[in-house]
Specification:
about 325 residues, alpha+beta, Ribosomal Protein S5, domain 2, Alpha-Beta Plaits, 2 domains, seven-stranded mixed beta sheet, four-stranded antiparallel beta sheet, about 40% helix, about 25% strand, binds (3R)-3-hydroxy-3-methyl-5-(phosphonooxy)pentanoic acid
Length: about 325
């Protein structure tokens, strides 16, 4: 039994930060993202009668340790749900630069879920792929679709209503990722969000912030108002980082270099450019802009960034 799939990565405009159930990656709130063009992972999954354990190959190299353990755990749930006994050989090829702060797990688990469901001829609807992708990495649920995507938190205990749906084309959006540090992040998103939920006195306000920001973002998308959408996204990113900073001990991702980029983007804006920032569980900064301003953003950030990546809006799983 063999299946293949390819998925792009995505960047959250309204962040997923906190789980209501850890095992199934069920989130506390909805989230919103834009799928990025050209930064993708292709996966082939083979459930093989002859295999004596699961195996993971990333860009040609056999990978063991935590990444394999996480995959095996995901596969155990998948096998149980689909009455499959065979171990699985998962071969992934990704062109996502490791240092760019662009999560590869989002595209990887979207493509793994797609490849495995195609292999066992299960329910290969996008909705179902999104549910299985979510169990590997929450943000992966959104990479099943192109353009602007909402992952609805859902309410069901089994996660059946917690999957993503497309919300619009996101036409004209350009994301410039500015690399501040290429060192591995000190606190994983999983650990960072769990600690925030458990210890941050600001966390109760997070759900209120997200529902307000989601409503504003939906209205901005409906009106085709990218400036308003980016402004809401920037506010939401700072709110996420503030919530995390108040955890004990603090969950701190932004560094001096991050603020240098943030300040420069603010300066560009005061000069009339349409450019806002968003940051995830790491120090790198993603600039939300349009093709009219992407060149000037690149030019101004080059001297203060280690590297820059420019992406348009990407399509969903293929
Ligand atoms: O899907 P995870 O577990 O890698 O968490 C993603 C967390 C953020 O990137 C910070 C926010 C998001 O919604 O993608």
């Amino acid at each position: 039994m063999r299946g293949q799939a390819k998925a792009n990565t995505n960047i959250a405009l309204i962040k997923y930060w906190g789980k209501r159930q850890k095992e199934l990656n069920l989130p506390v709130t909805d989230s919103l993202s834009v799928t990025l063009d050209g930064l993708s992972t292709s996966v082939e999954a083979v459930f093989d009668k002859a295999a004596v354990h699961d195996s993971l190959r990333i860009n040609g190299a056999i990978v063991e340790g935590a990444a394999l353990q996480r995959l095996t755990q995901w596969l155990d749930g998948f096998r149980q749900a689909h009455q499959v006994k065979e171990f699985c050989l998962v071969n992934t090829q990704s062109n996502i630069p490791i240092s760019a702060g662009l999560a590869s797990s989002a595209s990887s688990y979207a493509a793994i879920a797609g490849a495995c469901l195609r292999a066992v001829a299960g329910d290969v609807s996008s909705e179902n792929i999104s549910r299985w992708a979510r169990r590997g990495s929450g943000s992966a649920s959104r990479s099943v679709f192109g353009g602007l995507v909402v992952w609805q938190a859902g309410e069901a205990a089994d996660g059946s209503d917690s999957y993503a749906t497309p919300l619009g084309a996101g036409e004209g959006i350009v994301v410039v990722a500015a690399v501040v540090s290429d060192k591995p992040k000190s606190i994983s998103s999983r650990e960072g969000m769990n600690r925030t939920v458990e210890t941050s006195p600001l966390y109760p306000g997070w759900a209120t912030t997200v529902s307000r920001d989601m409503a504003a973002a939906r209205a901005a998308i409906k009106a085709g108002d990218l400036k308003l959408l980016f402004e809401v996204a920037e506010h939401n990113a700072f709110a996420m980082h503030a919530t995390a900073l108040a955890a004990r001990p603090a969950v701190r991702y932004l560094q001096a270099g991050s603020f240098a980029i943030i300040d420069e983007v603010k300066r560009l804006r005061s000069e009339g450019a349409l450019a806002y920032v968003t940051m995830d569980a790491g120090p790198n900064v993603k600039v939300l802009t349009t093709s009219d301003y992407a060149d000037v953003v690149m030019e101004r950030l080059t001297p203060i960034s280690k590297k820059l990546f420019r992406c348009g809006v990407g399509e969903g799983l293929t």
